[in-house]
Design brief:
Layout (H helix, E strand, L loop, with lengths): L2 H14 L12 H29 L5 H26 L5 H16 L13 H18 L1
């Protein structure tokens, strides 16, 4: 996969992963997704603040340094998306894959019609399953 495709996959993975704190007890990916969301929310503002303050407190001679710092801070969310994309493209471990297949079968037996990959599921498929179950759970209440 190319870098652009991995970033798009990471963005979709971040969007699909439910924001439920109890998932942090079972999946390490929950913390990674939360940190990525946090980076997307606050780091652009921190980069702008860093750029403005360096120019305000220094002079125009600090412009190259301010640009480097700001570009580095702005690259962190893209790096996080890239790493999420790499993780989302990996296959599930055997134990988690069997749990995933059982969960898909359980949801389909309960009246759902999930069309997710059962042959070598990936982490993006797990995120889709969790998102679907979270949405169906919210619609019951």
């Amino acid at each position: 996969m190319s870098v652009v495709e991995l970033i798009k996959l990471g963005r979709e993975y971040m969007r699909l992963w439910p924001q439920r704190a109890e998932l942090g007890n079972y999946f390490a990916e929950y913390q990674a997704v939360q940190i990525c969301r946090l980076a997307f929310r606050y780091l652009p503002g921190i980069a702008l603040f860093s750029f403005i303050m360096q120019l305000y407190l220094g002079s125009m001679t600090l412009l190259p340094q301010a640009l480097v710092y700001s570009l580095f801070i702005l690259s962190i969310p893209l790096q996080a998306l890239l790493m999420l994309g790499v993780k989302a493209d990996k296959f599930l471990p055997l134990a988690l894959a069997s749990w995933y297949k059982e969960s898909v079968a359980r949801v389909n037996e309960a009246g759902g019609s999930i069309k997710l990959s059962l042959h070598k599921p990936r982490f993006i498929d797990l995120a889709k399953l969790l998102n679907i179950s979270h949405q169906s759970q919210n619609s019951k209440f």
